[in-house]
Amino acid sequence: MIRDPDLLDQLLDTISRFVRERLIPNEARLAEEDAVPPELLEEMKAMGLFGLSIPEEYGGLGLTLEEEALVAMAIGQTSPAFRSIFGTNNGIGAQGILIDGTPEQKARYVPRLATGELLSAFCLTEPDSGSDAASLRTTAVRDGDHYVLNGTKRFITNGPHADVFTVMARTDPHHKGAGGISAFIVEGDTPGLKRGPADKKMGQKGAHTCDIIFEDCRVPAENVIGGKEGQGFKTAMKVLDRGRLHISAVCVGVAERLVEESLHYAIERKQFGVPLAEHQLIQAMLADSKTEAYAGRTMVLDAARRKDAGEDVSTLASCCKLFCAEMVGRVADRAVQVHGGAGYIAEYAVERFYRDVRLFRIYEGTTQIQQLVIARNMVREVT
Ligand SMILES: Cc1cc2nc3c(=O)[nH]c(=O)nc-3n(C[C@H](O)[C@H](O)[C@H](O)COP(=O)(O)OP(=O)(O)OC[C@H]3O[C@@H](n4cnc5c(N)ncnc54)[C@H](O)[C@@H]3O)c2cc1C
Questions:
Q1: Phi, psi of 128 (to 5 degrees)
Q2: For ligand 1, what atom is nearest to the CA of residue 369?
Q3: Nearest-angstrom CA–CA distance, 5 and 11
Q4: What is the pLDDT of residues 113-126, one digit of tens each?
């Protein structure tokens, strides 16, 4: 749902200009320094990017999902690591508190998350539980007016820097599945919360992950999200439904950038006396990538509109994540191919994007998990 087309156009124009004039020129620096330049972080905060999908009453921009998808597609035109820090913050990091938190929890954390004063992260994955998230082993044992958390969370985006963590932990040891899990808000300076060294990743340099280790970490009982035990897995799944659409939109944006990079290169570079773009086999790659990016854009916007209209889009969000993450992988592969040897050389953006996009098929549910979710929901609907 688009509430005010003129206002949205202004926002999209501002973001596109920021991407073109500030982020794209700093892509190589981001990768080399493995950090978002601090002045760009401040500019992102000033533009409200840390609170994109946080309601206006908490100081965010309060975008609908369709509006957020359009913004994510615009941001996707540059290195995904720029988006990772604020996308995680007001996405998977904050949404658990927003969707299921008590009024006190929202009032305490969300306004400061919206401005970027606090940075958040989402802790579901563990060393022995990734795709099978419901089997997680981190425990939270009630002790008076606190819970004592023990366990390790793995690959946590924003982990090295976050001030606030949404942590899924097992409060009912007798219930081995999803029903035994509760979600907690854990502040980053709580004694017993330790951060492992930053992971060395294949791509998306500048976006940081690490282990988050809980050793007898005492968390106030009032920090159980929603104030009720046993709801944490449901909260995590609601957060991921939304997150999957956001990531799908980013995949579309990146694919569109790669189509543009490929097209320009194919027009400029000549072989056999004519531009590459005149060779039909190159044209086939350009056309396939353009078509797939367009298909992705269309399906993400459709699912986002449906979600805004109140439909349950769990299946469609997985359809989008499955298609868009795989699609951008194919588009990146063709972009390297169109560039020939240059595509394998770090000086060209496509080499970096080729590595960056590999992650989209893995996190927030792998491609195989999206396939399982879609098929399971399809079968459930008719039986
Ligand atoms: C850079 C990065 C950032 C991340 N950020 C976060 C974060 O912020 N918070 C967080 O909680 N997690 C995060 N993750 C974790 C991510 O969500 C998991 O890596 C992902 O869910 C896969 O889990 P796994 O790595 O344990 O792989 P596994 O679950 O071990 O899967 C390995 C392979 O087996 C396949 N597989 C597993 N089960 C089945 C099945 N039933 N049928 C068919 N195939 C199957 C998978 O699809 C995959 O191909 C991040 C990961 C990375 C790499």
A1: -105, 5
A2: 47
A3: 10
A4: 999 999 999 999 99
The answer to whether the beta carbons of residues 52 and 60 sit under 8 Å apart is yes
Among residues 67, 126, 261, 364, the one annotated as catalytic is 364
Vertex 122: Cα angle to 68 and 246 (nearest 5): 20
Annotated catalytic, 364? yes
Residue 46, SS3 per DSSP: helix
Query: What are the residues whose beta carbons fall under 8 Å from the beta carbon of 288, sequence distance 6 or more?
Result: 330, 334
Q: How far apart are CA 300 and CA 65, in angstroms?
A: 10
Asked whether 368 lines ligand 1 (CB < 6 A), one says yes
For residue 322, the number of C-alpha atoms closer than 13 Å in the C-beta half-sphere is: 15
Q: How far does the centroid of ligand 1 lie from the alpha carbon of residue 40, in Å?
A: 30
* Residue 126 Cα to chain centre, angstroms: 18
Quote the ligand 1 centre to 211 CA distance (angstroms): 14
pLDDT tens profile 269-279: 999 999 999 99
User: What is the distance between the alpha carbons of residues 170 and 281, in angstroms, rounded to a whole number?
Assistant: 54
- Cβ neighbour number for residue 114 with a 10 Å cutoff: 28
Ligand 1 closest atom vs CA 368: 47
Do residues 145 and 190 touch, judged by C-beta distance below 8 A?
A: no
pTM (2 decimals)? 0.97
